[in-house]
Amino acid sequence: MDGNGTKNFNLHRCAVSDDTNDTLTARAYDAPLRPSRTAFQRDRERIVTARAFRRLAGKTQVFTSRASDHFRSRLTHTIEVVQIARGVAQALGLNEDLSEVLALAHDIGHPPFGHAGERALDTCLKLHGLRFDHNIHALRIVEHFELRYAAHRGLNLTLGVREGIIKHSRDYTVAQYPELACYLLDRMPPLEAQIIDLADEIAYLTADLDDGVESGLLEIGHIRAHVGLLDDCFTQIEQIHPGVEEKYLFNEALQLMQNTLTDDLVATTLANTRAIGATSLSEIRAHTARLAVFSAVAEAQRQQEKHYLYETLYTCPELSLEHDKAEEVITRLFNFWINKPDELPSGYVEQIETEGLARVVADYIAGMTDSFILLQYAQVKRAVRR
Questions:
Q1: Which phi and psi angles does 206 have, rounded to 5°?
Q2: What is the reported pTM?
Q3: 85 close to 177: Cβ distance less than 8 angstroms
Q4: Residue 184 domain-assigned?
Q5: In the chain, which end has fewer C-beta atoms inside a 10 angstrom radius, N or C?
């Protein structure tokens, strides 16, 4: 046991249960039990075999997939989030399978072109009194768009997974989102869901520095001068391996930075849970704030790096050109199908009466990969010229 008495403190009593009689393992439609697998293990299979999950391979994380085969896609980013989330869940004694499923599903609602595509689609929808929210869109995907079963639409995931898809990164209120009332909006999400947003942060804070240097847009020396945590980690690695080439030291410093943030998340979550005396999931849910957070020191380091990435990478001229292109492509296609809905695939045309034209167009665009939307854009441009 360490000096704070936290090393062996385990949160298994606060974890989500695998019990088939538990509310969170319930499904909207009856499904035969599989004694060899838990409900959340079955959900993992349903996610990884979904078309929306496979399409993540063709969606931008930061750089377009056309730039280099070595840059992260949404899929490779997701895999990195999975291994962090599962490690944190294991260290805390939480339900590892549930955390893994939520990590696998956390980005399936994103449209093409990364966050630039999401902003462009949201801007288009605002003109029709609607908004685009990738968490809500992810829920629509798993409940409605995926077609794999004869008896119903959707993947028929457990309530625990569907709740986590909605609530892992933000809180919703019934007043603003009455359609989400069944997802226990008056309660905090389980710790298995709370850790996903932080695992996501840890993954991309590490990866985006790596891809930024790989792209030539960032320099290691400049990062060290402006990102304190990375510099501290680099110095430690440099002392262990003096005289080694900078790029190898940088790779190991990134790994150490990831481990440092992960360890902080584990320790802070443990300390916060002990501080309120929680010994059950219901007590986690009843608390007024999330317990899975970084310490004050790590949070300051996170904010410093995030600010650095926004100032030097995400908004740099080279990526700004890509963002402008994303906005042009999405806006033009959105307006084209708004004005010519008969040009939509037949399956989407059939949904206009119940979902509304603007939402249907947004749903169609959001499901596209980067390469497919560029193909659609080229075809529409040719059609307009005729």
A1: -75, -50
A2: 0.94
A3: no
A4: yes
A5: C
Instruction: Give CA–CA dist 73/253, Å, rounded.
Output: 22
Q: Using pLDDT thresholds of 50, 70 and 90, give the confidence band for residue 67.
A: low
Of residues 93 and 4, the one with the higher pLDDT is: 93
d(CA 113, CA 95): 33
Instruction: Judge whether 73 and 58 are in contact, CB under 8 Å.
Output: yes
Q: How far apart are CA 263 and CA 363, in angstroms?
A: 38
Q: What is the pLDDT of residue 3?
A: 42
Predicted confidence (pLDDT) per residue in 134-174, tens digit: 999 999 999 999 999 999 999 999 999 999 999 999 999 99
- The answer to whether position 7 is within a domain reads no
1 within some domain: no
Rounded to the nearest angstrom, the gap between the alpha carbon of residue 246 and the centroid of all alpha carbons in its chain is: 31
Structural domains of the chain, count: 1
pLDDT at 62 over 90: no
| CATH number of the domain bearing residue 106 | 1.10.3210.10
Q: Which domain holds residue 180?
A: 12-382
Residue 5: both structure tokens together: 């008495």
> Residues 103, 203: contact at Cβ < 8 Å?
no
Answer yes or no: is pLDDT of 384 > 90.
no
Instruction: Return d(Cα 28, Cα 155) in angstroms, integer.
Output: 10
